[in-house]
Design goal:
The chain is an all-alpha fold. It has one domain. Helices cover about 65% and strands about 0% of the residues. The chain has four helices and no strands. Helix 1 crosses helix 2 and helix 1 packs across helix 4. The termini are far apart.
């Protein structure tokens, strides 16, 4: 499934916003973390329909990647 670009851009924003709130970090820092993650690549290219997952789920996945707990986290 390929996501509409406008919907995808909004989704990326929502994930960063959720991550920022959930982990109590400034939005700009959350943006840097997300756009430099492997999760960003997966979501933005539509791999495994990651863009269909909830914002909260993706925020948790991002934190797990940072913690080194995901296979696609470069470990």
């Amino acid at each position: 499934m390929t996501a509409n670009r406008h919907i995808l851009i909004h989704k990326l924003y929502d994930v960063v916003k959720e991550y920022s709130i959930e982990y109590k970090i400034p939005f700009r820092n959350a943006l840097d973390i997300f756009y430099n993650s492997n999760l960003y690549v997966l979501v933005s290219t539509g791999v495994a329909d990651m863009h269909c997952r909830s914002d909260g789920y993706l925020a948790e996945e991002l934190q797990m990647e940072i913690d080194g707990g995901l296979p696609y986290g470069g470990q």
